[in-house]
Amino acid sequence: MNNSTTYSWQAAYQCALLETDSTRIASRIDEALRAIQDRFSSTIQIGEQENAAIESARNALAVLRGEWFGGLSESMSGVVPHEAPQKLNLYRNWEGKTEFLATFTDLHSANAKLKEQLALSAGYYVIYDEMMGERLVFAESTVKG
Known about the structure:
Elements lengths: L9 H9 L6 H17 L6 H21 L19 E7 L2 E8 L2 H14 L2 E7 L4 E8 L4
Antiparallel strand pairs: 1-2, 1-3, 3-4
Helix pairs in contact: 1-2, 2-3
């Protein structure tokens, strides 16, 4: 990214990167992602340079979110055989504390439990694929409970 060019979404992105308060990191990441999404809604065309900067920012935010959920992005390298069963972990983060909720072998079951949890308790939820080293689903609930 060329440092002499400033994009409309960069301020929110930089706030997410520089946030040190663990209770605010998730909301800062969400704000940055919304700012990037808003940029795509703009009538001003996105050039090749900005598109590359957006892709880089999205990747950095994904890693930051993985680190926020307890360093889950550590195993992002490595090849997983196609025969390997899925290992999907559901996590909840609320008030700076991350809790492991359950492990699933298929996304359908993980999503069903996620929907149940969203209706019961406030927090940030993630379904994380341990084998692939990536976040599959991220959701937020503001339900009081």
